[in-house]
Design a protein that fits this description.
Blueprint (H helix, E strand, L loop, with lengths): L1 E6 L4 H13 L3 E4 L10 H13 L5 E6 L3 H8 L6 E3 L3 H9 L5 E5 L5 H13 L6 H12 L2
Parallel strand pairs: 1-2, 1-3, 3-5, 4-5
Bound molecules: D-ribose (RB5).
């Protein structure tokens, strides 16, 4: 599995921690920035990771800003993206099983590295259940048509 990861300055430190965890697990990571604590705009990174997910350069994405709110809103504006903002492991698992989320968002000022690592673990090890959930996610994409 290849994970694309991106953050703004508010999520930079957590991004680095999550990246280290994933690489330690032998998971390939493509880092779309940011590369420092210097102030940047989260939509730019949401877009980079979302595009990499849609063009299949990566299998799933992880986006982090201060709260996770702005960067998840930005990602969810892009058709085909189902970005789940999670602060707990149950939601992360359900976002995969019921919503087929292709990007996980977290808040670097909300969750610590320990919890965030468990959330990521739940997100990357859970699979979409399909069935009735497939019909529902298909309806999401036509809402903005
Ligand atoms: C940046 O200060 C902050 O607004 C951003 O990281 C994020 O929390 C927005 O939703």
């Amino acid at each position: 599995m290849i994970i694309g990861i991106g953050s703004d300055h508010g999520g930079y430190e957590l991004k680095e921690g999550i990246k280290e965890y994933l690489v330690g697990e032998g998971i390939q990571v493509v880092d779309f920035g940011t590369d420092s604590l210097e102030s940047v705009d989260y939509p730019d990174f949401a877009r980079k990771v979302a595009e990499a997910v849609l063009n299949k350069e990566v299998d799933r994405g992880i986006l982090i800003c201060g709260t996770g709110i702005g960067i998840s809103i930005a990602a969810n504006r892009i058709k085909g993206i189902r970005c789940a903002l999670c602060s707990d492991t149950f939601s992360a698992r359900m976002s995969r099983e019921h919503n087929d989320a292709n990007i996980l968002a977290m808040g670097g000022r909300v969750v610590g590295l320990g919890l965030a690592t468990d959330i990521v673990k739940a997100f990357i090890t859970s699979e979409f259940e399909g069935g009735r959930h497939e019909r529902r996610i298909n309806k999401i994409d036509v809402i903005s048509d």
